[in-house]
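Example S7 (structure tokens).
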């Protein structure tokens, strides 16, 4: 669908990348990876047509639509959430207006037998079928599903977007992009503003999309679950592998090892040939052999070894004094803004040396509790900071608080004290700001470079309680790995607010879940928590308020005798459960088959012959309606089944 040929981008003497050529095919799921500053976001902008390369071409197939979500964008605040999301359906509104005009013309005209009138009827029929096939009358349901999937409550739909934070407004932009269903989706760090549940929903959505996806993300679990191809930008070149990221890492290592072996063997062969030439150069009896070896040497094509990016982030927290046994104790903590209660009755004790995670949907109070611990905002209840606790705090907006007019060196020089000032260059080098990079102005740094600079500031003083609020946003995978290892070795206490499952895995041993005004403690790692949550969700996640009310009324009407059902009642309940389970299984099988039929139809409709066959559009619309009806029935039966269980 998109062909990239001989791409080169220069921002100075050294090209950002050169000789970049590859093709994006339908159903490609491409992870664009590389260290911060390698040119990933620049390449996405070029593919989106927002930036021109220095050399090379980007050819987009006729009719192919492209949707692009940048890391940062100018957002509008003049509509409600629903009205803003409806902007994705402008083409449907235009088509509806056109149909209304055609319908009015059919009503006004009286030349019923004329060829022109019949032609108008044919055009109206064709356009109306297209309108129905595009979901012209069902877009609201899809809009609501998408907004809910991205974490919005239905009560948010009619709120002005101005009431939401920048992260939530970015979710609205992502919803609009997904609802347009472009042929190629270009996503630059789409998970930065999402919580774990929304990321998992987005994974499922992207897997079902029929078009191509090219994404930049430092969330390893996300790209492994979504992508089937990895393109790495490294040292100005690209390396294209048709495998997910984890497999790419293995294959990339194997490839370089093979290149090194071939290079070493060739170097030995060259040295042996040069030694022979030198030894027998002046012997007449060996003149023919010497000339032959000289020609042989001239014909050797040097084996190229991929450059390896050896720059890395060596991060070590300085030693600090030992804190008390309980760095943080919360007793009946409550935080409210007017009538809105963020959380209440929070009781938790964090032990020295523990590494814990705060997780939950955005807006549920994770960062708010951190601000309470930092004593940045007032609260109700009791919060005790332990003896000798020295806090190091990395906030979500830390990188945005940097002075853009300072250089990298000056930024650190202004906060460094004592002997540490003599080591500023060494520290900057360890964070990939070596050489001329230390003289860059902050305003020209990428988001990842700013995050690293903000992280350096955190490391300048010894602490024994680290509080990291989304520390991995904009950090590349190599930097995240080193940061994770440093936190593992850190002998103090750590609180991490993060949605990055891969980063939290093997790092934390306790999870605090924020939701519904409560903070629940879960012992174990992040995947232990997610597994438990998945089991709980079967009973709780999709229950509506009306269903809960219905259950409550049923309990009031039929209280169980002594907390137990009779033997006959148990048998009857078991029989009902088995019947409902069978119905759910049959519906799931039926939905899966219909979705496969829809996919096959869409493949046929994508061909020139299929595009002209209106019966395919009618069949497609009919299947879509059947799937929607089956899904509604499945949801009803599933809720009834969960009630019985």
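Recovered sequence:
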């Amino acid at each position: 669908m998109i062909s990239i040929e001989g791409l080169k981008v220069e921002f100075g003497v050294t090209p950002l990348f050169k000789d970049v050529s590859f093709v994006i095919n339908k159903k490609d799921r491409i992870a664009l990876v590389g260290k911060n500053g390698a040119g990933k976001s620049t390449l996405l902008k070029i593919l989106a047509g927002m930036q021109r390369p220095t050399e090379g071409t980007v050819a987009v197939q006729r009719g192919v639509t492209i949707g692009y979500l940048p890391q940062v964008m100018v957002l509008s605040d003049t509509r409600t959430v629903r009205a803003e999301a409806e902007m994705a359906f402008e083409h449907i509104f235009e088509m509806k207006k056109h149909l209304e005009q055609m319908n009015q013309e059919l009503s006004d005209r009286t030349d019923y037998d004329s060829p022109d009138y019949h032609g108008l009827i044919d055009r109206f029929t064709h356009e109306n079928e297209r309108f129905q096939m595009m979901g012209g009358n069902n877009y609201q349901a899809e809009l609501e599903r998408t907004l809910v999937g991205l974490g919005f409550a239905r009560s948010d739909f009619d709120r002005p977007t101005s009431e939401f934070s920048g992260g939530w407004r970015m979710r609205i932009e992502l919803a609009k992009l997904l609802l347009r269903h472009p042929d190629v989706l270009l996503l630059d760090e789409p998970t930065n503003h999402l919580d774990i549940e929304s990321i998992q929903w987005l994974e499922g959505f992207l897997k079902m999309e029929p078009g191509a996806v090219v994404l930049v993300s430092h969330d390893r679990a996300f790209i492994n679950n979504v992508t089937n191809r990895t393109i790495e930008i490294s040292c100005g070149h690209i390396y294209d592998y048709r495998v997910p990221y984890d497999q790419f890492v293995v294959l990339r290592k194997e490839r370089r090892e093979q290149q090194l072996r071939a290079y070493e063997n060739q170097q030995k062969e060259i040295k042996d040939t040069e030694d022979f030439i030198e030894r027998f150069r002046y012997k007449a009896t060996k003149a023919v052999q010497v000339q032959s070896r000289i020609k042989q040497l001239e014909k050797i094509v040097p084996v190229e070894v991929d450059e390896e990016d050896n720059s890395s982030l060596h991060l070590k927290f300085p030693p600090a004094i030992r804190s008390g046994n309980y760095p943080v104790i919360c007793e009946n903590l409550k935080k409210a803004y007017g009538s809105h209660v963020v959380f209440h009755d929070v009781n938790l004790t964090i032990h020295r040396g523990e590494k814990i995670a705060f997780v939950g949907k955005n807006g549920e109070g994770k960062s708010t509790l951190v601000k309470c611990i930092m004593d940045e905002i007032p609260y109700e209840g009791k919060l005790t900071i332990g003896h000798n606790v020295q806090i190091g705090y990395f906030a979500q907006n830390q990188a945005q608080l940097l002075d853009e007019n300072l250089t990298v060196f000056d930024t650190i020089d202004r906060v460094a004290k004592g002997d540490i000032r003599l080591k500023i260059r060494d520290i900057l080098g360890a964070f990939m700001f070596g050489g001329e990079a230390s003289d860059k102005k902050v305003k020209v740094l990428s988001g990842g470079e700013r995050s690293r600079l903000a992280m350096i500031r955190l490391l300048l003083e010894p602490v024994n309680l680290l509080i990291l609020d989304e520390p991995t946003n904009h950090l590349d995978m190599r930097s995240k790995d080193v940061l994770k290892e440093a936190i593992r070795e850190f002998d103090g206490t750590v609180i991490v607010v993060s949605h990055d499952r891969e980063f939290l895995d093997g790092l934390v041993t306790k999870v605090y879940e924020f939701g519904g005004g409560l903070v629940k403690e879960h012992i174990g790692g992040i995947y232990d928590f997610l597994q438990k949550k998945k089991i709980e969700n079967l009973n709780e996640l999709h229950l509506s308020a009306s269903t809960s009310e219905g259950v409550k009324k049923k309990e009031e009407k039929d209280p169980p005798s002594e907390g137990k059902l009779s033997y006959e009642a148990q048998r009857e309940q078991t029989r009902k459960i088995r019947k409902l389970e069978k119905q759910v299984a049959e519906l799931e099988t039926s939905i899966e088959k219909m979705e496969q039929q829809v996919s096959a139809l869409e493949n046929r409709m994508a061909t020139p012959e299929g595009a002209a066959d209106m019966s395919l559009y009618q069949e497609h619309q009919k299947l879509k309606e059947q799937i929607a009806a089956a899904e509604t029935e499945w949801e009803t039966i599933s809720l009834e089944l969960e009630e019985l269980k």
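Notes on this example. The chain has four domains: 1-65+182-281, 81-181, 328-538, 545-644.
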